[in-house]
Write a structure and sequence with these properties.
The chain is an alpha+beta fold. It has one domain: 3-Layer(aba) Sandwich (Aminopeptidase). It is built from seven helices and nine strands. A nine-stranded mixed beta sheet has the order 7-8-6-5-4-3-2-1-9, with helices on both faces. A hairpin with a 7-residue loop joins strand 4 and strand 5. Helix 1 crosses helix 3. The longest helix is centred in the middle third of the chain and has 16 residues.
Length: 193
């Protein structure tokens, strides 16, 4: 599975991705917005194994892809995960290595590509994501796609830090309206499976 943007190849994970993936997951900046169970150092290898398992499921409901910058550098991961969601819905997530945070519109480029893939190829009716209230970057990104935010029940570990759980949502109709009025500018899109 491969999707492309102007600057990235989004593809299924391979074994060679583990060192870079584990390295940025070990960075304290990567773990500051995660819960206590998500900072285990062994988790990176387990996650890649899980992502690879998802790639072979039939029907495929979860697409968790490596973000590879042209030239071969892994800069993060992204995904559309439909397992456990209502039919026609999937959760979109983008995770960049800390050295790429807030730079060059990387996350926005990837989010736009995934949203287009979800609404066009997977025929989703709604895409959503979840974050903590302290993560203002995600709120800005979701807003730039035309998404709306909804406050959800908050896990205790977030409450202890003074945060709330926020879910953002965008429907296919909202996405298409944003494309038609040029408020969302898609990247040139190509897909290969």
């Amino acid at each position: 599975m491969q999707l492309t943007t102007n600057r990235f190849l989004l593809r299924d994970f391979v074994d060679a991705d583990l060192p870079a993936f584990a390295a940025y997951h070990a960075d304290p900046r990567s773990t500051e917005l995660y819960g206590p169970d998500e900072t285990n150092p062994v988790l990176a290898a387990e996650l890649i194994e899980l992502f690879r398992t998802w790639a072979f499921e039939t029907p495929r409901l979860n697409y968790q892809l490596a973000i590879i910058r042209r030239g071969g550098t892994l800069v993060g991961c992204c995904g559309l995960r439909g397992k456990g969601a209502e039919p026609g819905r999937a959760e979109l997530g983008v995770e960049l290595a800390p050295e790429y945070w807030g730079r060059y519109g990387y996350a926005l480029e990837v989010m736009k590509r995934l949203a287009n893939f979800g609404f066009s190829d997977l025929e989703l009716t709604e895409i959503y994501g979840s974050t903590v209230s302290a993560n203002a970057k995600v709120a800005r990104l979701a807003g730039s796609l035309g998404a709306v935010s909804v406050e959800r029940p908050t896990p205790d570990w977030m409450v202890a830090r003074g945060w709330r759980q926020i879910e953002w949502q965008i429907s296919r109709e909202q996405w298409q309206a944003g494309l038609s009025n040029n408020s969302i500018k898609p990247n040139p899109l190509r897909r290969s499976v």
